[in-house]
Write a structure and sequence with these properties.
The protein contains twelve helices and 13 strands. The chain is α/β, with parallel strands linked by helices and 368 residues long. It has two domains: 147 residues, Nucleotidyltransferase, domain 5, CATH 3.30.420; 196 residues, Rossmann fold. α10 packs across α11. It is elongated.
Length: 368
């Protein structure tokens, strides 16, 4: 279903400011006689203003997905309305990327207007925002069409057979794009080669794919440049900042850094052979896969605590992604040696507050 002109009403709130936050957005037809789409999401800890901007971004994204050409935005946030209308400057660092993302979305329409309304006239979006803060299942995409609603799998839905309950932290695991070392199939651990031009195109394609889904609370990246470049593309598309977690760094391959598989095997034949079958074995002056696992277990704990119940993009490298999938599947180390992950591929793992976990996607490259 498409609609040439729509009305977007959006709201966001934070209980504590900053505190537990959520947004709600609703898209009506031009006469406000019918609901075309609803979105809501719990954001974790955030401010009122962040939640309000996230509501606007969700509403504009929903309008775009409906094929709208003209959008009338109505919000009870004077700040957002005045800033998006260009009458007030955006000064706060947290608001700048969100306002930029909202403007990018607005530019895709023939016309967008912004009107302030009193809270009493924004009750639908306010209800959705409060439902999100109360822990209701997220509506990340959906529309009401002839009485039937379609919706994406909610972030709070349990995976079924595992018996896990509660709202999971859903990690969209994105491997960085191509570098010269990856073209030559060389060990690339703590070295810092930049993305190639094709690698940057891969990063943009992945970012567009993730942004089209929306409802992402944060982008978290390895500190290495190739991951940071890939993460920044996703962050720009989503209108969120990049958070760096040092624990997401790639395996330290030590003296094998920059070597091909054959060169490393020739240099240290016995050690290389044992390394391929024993996760406790280190490359010379490097890091074992067991040490990587301990590091990634700590990362998982950090991220599930910081972004509980949220969708986050995690941009990192082959071994950290394989290890997070291994943890989510609760399987042995053979996965590290048997699973292939392409450059700029997307995988999805979920970690539940009761300790349950699930894997929804592995090595998806349909966006490339």
């Amino acid at each position: 279903m498409t609609a040439d002109r729509v009305v977007v009403e959006a709201d966001g709130g934070s209980r504590g400011n900053p505190g537990p936050a959520g947004y709600g957005a609703v898209v009506f037809d031009a006469d406000r006689g019918r609901v075309l789409a609803e979105r809501r999401e719990f954001l974790g800890v955030a401010t009122n203003n962040v939640a309000e901007y996230r509501g606007l971004i969700a509403g504009l994204t929903a309008a775009r997905d409906l094929g709208a050409h003209e959008v009338d935005v109505r919000m009870d946030s004077k700040l957002v309305v005045e800033q998006m209308s260009g009458r007030w400057k955006v000064k706060h660092a947290d608001m700048i990327p969100l306002a930029q993302r909202a403007r990018e979305l607005a530019a895709s329409f023939a016309r967008v207007s912004y009107t302030w309304i009193p809270r009493s006239e924004n009750s639908h979006a306010d209800r959705l925002a409060n439902e999100a803060m109360d822990g209701e299942d997220a509506i990340t995409s959906g529309r009401v069409d002839d009485g039937a609603r379609e919706s994406a799998t909610p972030a709070a839905a349990a995976p079924g057979w595992t018996g896990a309950i509660g709202a999971p932290t859903r990690m969209l695991l994105l491997r960085h794009g191509q570098t010269e070392l990856s073209v030559e199939r060389r060990y690339s651990g703590r070295g810092n080669p930049p993305l190639t031009e094709y690698g940057r195109a891969q990063a943009r394609a992945a970012a567009d794919r993730i942004a089209a889904k929306g409802a992402v609370a944060a982008v978290v990246s390895s500190p290495l440049g190739r991951a940071r470049e890939t993460a920044e593309a996703a962050a720009r598309a989503l209108g969120v900042p990049v958070d760096v977690h040092d624990g997401l760094i790639e395996t330290d391959f030590g003296k094998w850094e920059g070597l091909t598989f054959a060169e490393a095997a020739q240099r240290d034949p016995d050690l290389h052979r044992r390394w391929l079958s024993d996760t406790a074995v280190r490359p010379p002056a490097g890091e074992s896969f067991d040490e990587v696992r301990a590091r990634i277990e700590s990362v998982r704990a950090d991220l599930t605590a910081a972004y509980a119940g949220s969708n986050i993009v995690v941009v990192t490298h082959v071994t950290p992604i394989k290890t997070l999938l291994q943890l989510a599947l609760d399987v042995g180390p053979s996965l590290l040696y048997r699973l292939h992950l392409d450059l700029a591929s997307l995988s999805i793992a979920e970690f539940y507050p009761d300790g349950g976990s699930s894997v929804r996607l592995v090595n998806d490259t349909s966006h490339l």
